[in-house]
């Protein structure tokens, strides 16, 4: 009789459907929470990547508009470019702008200025995409690098290195010069 009571209770327990939704929710919650927070983190990363691209474009564009720039004007261009990073910290961005001219088959640096990274020395040979320059042509190369550290810290555990390089032709002159005065 005792075993029959136990089997009856076991059958009743197996037929009982109360709380099934709560168990299913408890099983699915970690998966959906991971997807939710992971998508938030990826959207932050994409937003910063867009800032890097936009900053490199603006840095090159503002420089390519000049004819002869002073160091003060270049610093103003860097300051304007850093402002584009808002609401992120633009002071951590590594930026470099370089005027390059193809001379005798070599892509030589005319001048280079940088913030938070090393500028190229004048006369340095720099690689640019094939067929971008012919002899006598010049371009402005703008580079921006940014190390993105995850906001949440769990879904992208290591720093992501974001970088962008833009090549623009000078707009109002053949070569953008830097006045040393």
What Rg do the Cα atoms give?
Answer: 29 Å
Order of helices and strands: HHEHEEEEE
> Portion of residues in helices?
25-40%
Strands of the widest sheet, in order across it, are: 3-2-4-5
Tally of strands: 6
Uncertain segments of ≥5 residues (pLDDT<50)?
Answer: none
Total count of domains: 1
State the end-to-end CA separation: 106 Å
Explain how this protein is built.
- This protein has 181 residues and is α+β, with helices and mostly antiparallel strands.
- The chain has one domain.
- Helices cover 40% and strands 24% of the residues.
- It has a four-stranded antiparallel β-sheet, covered by helices on one side. Strands 1-6 form a two-stranded parallel ribbon.
- The radius of gyration is 29 Å and the shape is rod-shaped.
Key terms:
3 helices; 6 strands; four-stranded antiparallel sheet
Topology of this protein?
Elements: H1 2-15, H2 20-64, E1 68-69, H3 71-83, E2 94-103, E3 106-115, E4 138-148, E5 160-168, E6 177-178
Parallel strand pairs: 1-6
Antiparallel strand pairs: 2-3, 2-4, 4-5
Helix pairs in contact: 2-3
Gist of the model:
With 181 residues, this protein is of the alpha+beta class. It has one domain (2-178). It is 40% helix and 24% strand.
């Amino acid at each position: 009789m005792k075993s029959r009571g136990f089997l009856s209770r076991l059958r009743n327990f197996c037929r009982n459907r109360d709380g099934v939704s709560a168990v299913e929710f408890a099983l699915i919650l970690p998966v959906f929470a991971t997807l939710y927070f992971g998508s938030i983190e990826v959207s932050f990363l994409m937003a910063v990547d867009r800032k890097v691209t936009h900053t490199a474009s603006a840095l090159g564009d503002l420089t390519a508009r000049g004819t002869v720039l002073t160091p003060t004007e270049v610093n103003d261009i860097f300051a304007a470019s850093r402002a584009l990073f808002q609401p992120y910290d633009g002071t951590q961005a590594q930026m470099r702008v370089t005027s390059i001219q193809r001379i005798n088959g070599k892509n030589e640096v005319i001048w280079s200025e940088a913030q938070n990274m090393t500028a190229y020395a004048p006369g340095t040979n720099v690689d640019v995409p094939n067929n971008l320059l012919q002899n006598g042509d010049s371009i402005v190369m703008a580079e921006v690098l940014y190390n993105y550290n995850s906001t949440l810290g769990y879904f992208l555990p290591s720093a992501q290195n974001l970088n962008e390089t833009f090549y623009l032709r000078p707009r109002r002159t053949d070569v953008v010069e830097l006045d040393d005065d």
